[in-house]
Amino acid sequence: MPRINGERLIQRLRKLATFGAYETGVHRPTYSPQDMESRRWLVDQYESVGLSAHIDGAGNVFGRSPRPGPAMLIGSHSESQNHAGWLDGAMGVIYGLEIAHAFSESEACRNMAIDPVAWSDEEAHFVPFLGSRSFVGDLGQAEIDAARSRTGQSLSEALREAGLDKLPRETIRPERYAGYLEAHIEQGDSLEATGKRLGIVTSIVAIWQYRITIDGVQNHAGTTRMAIRKDAGMAAVRLASLIDANFPKAAGTRSVWTMGRLDLEPGAPSIIPGRATMLFQFRDDEDATLLRLEETLHGLVREASQMTGCEMKMERIAAGQPLHMEASFQEALLAAAREHCPDGYVRMPSGASHDAQILGRTIPAGMLFVPSIGGISHHWTEDTDEADLILGCQVLADAAERILASR
Amino acid sequence: MPRINGERLIQRLRKLATFGAYETGVHRPTYSPQDMESRRWLVDQYESVGLSAHIDGAGNVFGRSPRPGPAMLIGSHSESQNHAGWLDGAMGVIYGLEIAHAFSESEACRNMAIDPVAWSDEEAHFVPFLGSRSFVGDLGQAEIDAARSRTGQSLSEALREAGLDKLPRETIRPERYAGYLEAHIEQGDSLEATGKRLGIVTSIVAIWQYRITIDGVQNHAGTTRMAIRKDAGMAAVRLASLIDANFPKAAGTRSVWTMGRLDLEPGAPSIIPGRATMLFQFRDDEDATLLRLEETLHGLVREASQMTGCEMKMERIAAGQPLHMEASFQEALLAAAREHCPDGYVRMPSGASHDAQILGRTIPAGMLFVPSIGGISHHWTEDTDEADLILGCQVLADAAERILASR
Q: Chain A within 8 Å of B260 (Cβ-Cβ)?
């Protein structure tokens, strides 16, 4: 069985966290100088454990084992959200590196191929899952040309500045791989709340996202009588209240829904908002529930529009499909978890999106979660106990060996 | 009696609207090149009707009659809100010019002093009522040094760029003036709705304004169960709903309240907002009502905070006093209205703030409203019938003569 080196694992995790260090977390947006520096560092790391390595035109960092394979592709994304945590993505990337290293040190595993990978822009600074989607051949040039960052920079310009525009984008040759394994922090509190240390992922939820545009009548906040107002901001409040009151009835036990953004225009203290724009999303891993929630939302938008006299336009801007993880990979992860942490594991769906749901369309995929302290993520205070970080890596290594040995 | 020249009045109004023309309105922010150009044009206009004229260090444009006085100060502000109407402020400014012109052409009025004025930044691009407050001695250097525009430009820099930083700021010598008259579009629909053409202002409401900061817990929108969320955005929705439900009970018949701005942070689709910031204001012309509304707001903030578990901080960022217009000026305006438009006028409070409430602290002040078509203002579609524009100017001129003649 491969033995991972916990001290080395933590050392490399801490080192990766120095690129774009921010408070106790990191600020490493996709293709930023800090991000590119960390990717070049990963190339060196991959090579230092006997792999060939390169960065492709999407910014993905690939380590390739000299073994014929079939190889286990293991990784996650290495960029971060803005001012976010040191483990989100980074942990799965360093797991891949450590597991490749541990396999090379193990008599029994030396002939098994581990290909570690660091995807780019899972965090959607430009395009959600840019790197993994590019790898599975699901990213067209048109989308690349149209993409801009939240700060308005065009993707093409960012790729140029990062020195990636001349490099080819690697696409998958499925026959090379036995499958894909990704480990990630849970980013929630279910494991911590139930005293578990490992989550074996059964499925990844789909995110359905909407832009709701509400048009009222912009007017003077002092001279326009309450009776005749068509306040787009208050209409948005009405809609949000209806969602708050009615979604629990339509939701599944694990459904979540969020209004992440609400903009009132013009946004001046003495002007009645003439327009409000709401970004709203919900998530579930069952198609029936997703459809029911969308139908509910449609009805509430109609109702709020009638109540307020404001016109409301609802556009669906994203609608993914839930992905169910490979059964045999779940079994291997369960067996490894049972061995290293009896009673300390649980099967659970993932409420967050991960590159595994992109890879899982093309090759078998499995995922493992470790606890997030306080359930915090997408914030620089995000953290996980070192013991859990080490346990998770050992269990993922063990599962990889079980899968490769069974072939 | 002074006879104003309607054609000339409209011509000059149209001319002023060419500075920063936008659609059928204007975009003429305080101290912008278009604003300064229009102020220099006003200097020429004042001189062309036999007045001395200059721009002071606050950007106010003063026309001064050679007559000993006491003079009637007549005007309004000449900058505009962003992409706003052609009459808001501008109408009162051109009325002052036309009335000065008409008096100079009238045998009976030739010896009466009319001092037209164009105030700066009533619209608060930098500081609300900057010009009129500077003139009454209510603007300290500290406030000037601290002020920034909505776009982040410092006031000092803007004054430098406008070439005003070296000029002295004029302050009022009350003995010069019989008082201040200001005409303005109503910016509401009361006149139009009741078929009236003139509003004699009885009082100007006070605006009490608040910043309410709501702190929840920023977290991942997919992995954080609904049960444990502290969503600052939804807490803001809860508070806004409580205000919507409870303010009507506490309000006076003419009270208005508005949430003009609501910002959710970080404002990303997949992140539960950790902070929400709300700008909220209410207006009334009775102290007792203002106090009752503030007390109600305090209670609702407490209630919403308890309901949501989010901490809410409520700061009062502005609290003016209602101003009651000079009784004798109201009488003069009523008499003039009766003569020129029997049954076409009404006494009413002003729901909007105006420079008259600043001047009214120091010298007697009166105000006249003309209708806004559709009650629209602070928008480029704002407009008023030409016949009403001309009638309003004649009535204001007539009232000015009655007041000056009575001394």
A: yes
B39 forms beta bridges with none
Rounded Cα–Cα distance for residues A96 and A181 (Å):
9
A234 contacts B237? CB cut-off 8 A: no
Q: Is residue B401 classed exposed, middle or buried when 0-12, 13-18 and 19+ CB atoms within 10 A define those classes?
A: buried
Q: At what angle are helices B90-105 and B33-48 packed, to 10 degrees?
A: 10
- Tens-place pLDDT, residues A105-120: 999 999 999 999 999 9
Q: Contact at 8 Å (CB) between B82 and B27?
A: yes
Chain A residues close to B374, C-beta within 8 Å: none
For A7, A129, B42, B130, B250, the CA distances from B299, given in Å and listed in that order, are 55, 46, 50, 34, 12
- Note down the domain range covering A259: 206-319
- Spatial separation of the C-alpha atoms in residues B96 and B90, rounded to whole Å: 10
Chain A CB within 8 Å of residue B179 CB:
no
- Asked if A180 and A211 sit in the same domain, the reply is no
CA-based nearest distance A105→chain B, Å: 36
Residue A338 CB neighbour total at 10 angstroms: 14
The answer to the question of residue B1 being in a domain is no
| Residue A46 sits in the same domain as residue A156 | yes
The verdict on A199 and A82 lying in the same domain is yes
Cβ B223–A376 below 8 Å, yes or no?
no
Per-residue pLDDT reduced to its tens digit, B304-358:
999 999 999 999 999 988 999 999 999 999 999 999 999 999 999 999 999 999 9
Looking at the fold, whether A25 and A110 belong to one and the same domain comes out as yes
Looking at B319, B346, B373, the residue that finishes a domain is: B319
What contacts B73, CB < 8 A, 6 or more positions away? B115, B117, B177, B179, B180, B181, B359, B363
Q: Are residues A230 and A262 in the same domain?
A: yes
| CATH (domain of A313) | 3.30.70.360
Residue corresponding to tokens 């359905």: A208
H or E element at residue A295: helix A287-308
Given a contact cutoff of 8 angstroms between Cβ atoms, the answer to whether A101 and A393 are in contact is: no
pTM: 0.80
Q: How far, in Å, CA of B134 to CA of B335, rounded? A: 33
